[in-house]
Specification:
Blueprint: E1 2-9, E2 23-29, H1 31-42, E3 46-53, H2 56-67, E4 70-78, E5 85-91, E6 97-102, H3 116-120, E7 124-127, H4 132-144, E8 148-153, H5 163-166, E9 171-175, H6 176-183, H7 188-197, E10 202-206, E11 212-215, E12 221-224, H8 238-253, H9 269-285, H10 299-306
Parallel strand pairs: 1-5, 3-4, 7-8, 8-9, 9-10
Antiparallel strand pairs: 1-2, 5-6, 10-11, 11-12
Helix pairs in contact: 1-8, 6-7, 8-9, 9-10
Keywords: Kinase, Transferase
Domain Carbohydrate kinase PfkB: 17-298
InterPro entries: Ketohexokinase-related, PfkB_dom, Ribokinase-like
């Protein structure tokens, strides 16, 4: 979880200079929290697990979750610590970003800190590599309860130490940079097959305006085109919102077995393709406004663009 202060400028500074801000905004952010914001906005029952500081930034983060119907029962406020924040420069013409961030000083979870009931009562556990010491125990609890594990591998976030965790992921959708480093493949469909062979039931690689690539549980490949936008204001949060929309689709349209378990292997490929289209539409529409969440569409808007 993080709070963003976004500043749109005409051009990125190249040295010492003064220029007037075109536009600015404050917005919530973070890979998992923004994914949950999408799913919560669309009507899914979601809960955030994390720790934040007892500062103004932390209070802002909690208030923002209320807007998107994200439950914060699993968020622990730690006294004497600060919450994560970032300042993002957005170039007006291109929508490109430069990010300057400050990490939260709230300690990450250890195994003994996990709220296991919130994990085992869920259909999907969505992670991105944070709380490293607690991830394998959390995944173990999820697997025991037949809770699917989803992973968001963002650009510039691959570390070889994640490989042990990646071996246990059911839904693995990563950015191009992450996928290339993790698999050694520059052909993105081949990268998907590699991720699938490593154990992921759903393997995906996103490539911005070039669309996304998938291999489904039965080994079938699928290429999802991106939805172009006439004007791109800001690309912050597009990948995170892609994940949230995809997971929302799975929980709503995926096959539920007699025990109430979401079963990917028996979910038709047509449903999985609809999830990908919805995700692509949400990511595209989220470029309309400054910030990672303020531009999020309604579910009807996203379904209309995706024609589903």
């Amino acid at each position: 979880m993080i709070n963003f202060h976004l500043i749109k400028v005409r051009k990125f500074p190249t040295g010492r200079e003064v220029q007037e801000v075109v536009e600015s905004a404050n917005d919530g952010g973070g890979p998992v929290s923004t994914a949950l914001a999408v799913a919560g906005k669309f009507g899914a029952n979601v809960v955030m697990l994390d720790r934040i500081g007892d500062d103004m930034t932390g209070r802002t983060i909690l208030e923002d979750f209320k807007i998107y119907n994200v439950h914060t029962d699993g968020v622990e406020v730690v006294g004497g610590t600060i919450s994560g924040c970032a300042t993002i420069l957005v170039e007006a013409e291109s929508g490109k970003r430069a990010i300057f961030f400050e990490r939260s000083t709230a300690p990450e979870y250890g195994e003994s800190d996990l709220v296991r009931d919130l994990i085992t009562d869920s259909k999907i556990l969505h992670i991105n590599g944070r709380h490293r010491q607690a991830l394998l125990p959390a995944i173990k609890s999820a697997k025991k309860a037949h809770t699917l594990v989803s992973f968001d591998g963002g650009a510039n976030r691959y570390e070889s130490s994640l490989d042990e965790i990646m071996a246990h992921i059911d839904i693995c959708i990563v950015a191009r940079d992450f996928g290339e480093k993790y698999t050694g493949e520059t052909d993105l469909m081949k990268a998907c097959y590699s991720i699938h062979e490593k154990g992921a039931l759903i393997a995906g690689v996103t490539d911005g305006a070039n669309g996304s690539y998938f291999v489904w549980p039965d080994g079938t490949e699928y290429r999802c085109a991106a939805y172009s936008q006439d004007t791109i204001v800001d690309t912050t949060g597009c990948g995170d919102s892609f994940h949230g929309a995809f997971l929302y689709g799975l929980t709503q349209w995926g096959t539920i077995d007699e025990q109430g378990i979401l079963d990917l292997q028996y979910t038709p490929n047509e449903v999985l393709e609809a999830c990908a289209k919805l995700a692509s539409a949400v990511g595209a529409l989220n470029t309309r406004q400054l910030g990672g969440r303020s531009g999020l569409p309604t579910l009807d808007e996203a379904k209309q663009l995706a024609n589903i």
